[in-house]
Amino acid sequence: MDLKQLRTFVTVAELGTVSKAAERLHVAQPALSRQIRALEEGLGVALFDRLAGRLQLSSAGERFLGESRGLLNYARDVDERARLFQRPDAGVLKVAASPHFIEGVFPEFLLRYAERFPEVQVRLVDLVGAATIGMIERGEVHLAQGTVRLLRPGQTHIAHLPLVNIEMMAAWNPRLSIPAGATVEIGQLAGHPLLQTGPEYVIRQTFDAACRLAGFEPNNVLESRAPQALLAMAEAGHGVAIVPSALRSHAYRLRIARITYRRKVLGEPLSILFDRRRPQPAYASAFCKMLMAHVARIFPLTRPGDNASGPIGKPRRTA
Question: ∠ CA 234-175-245 to the nearest 5 degrees?
Answer without folding.
Answer: 40
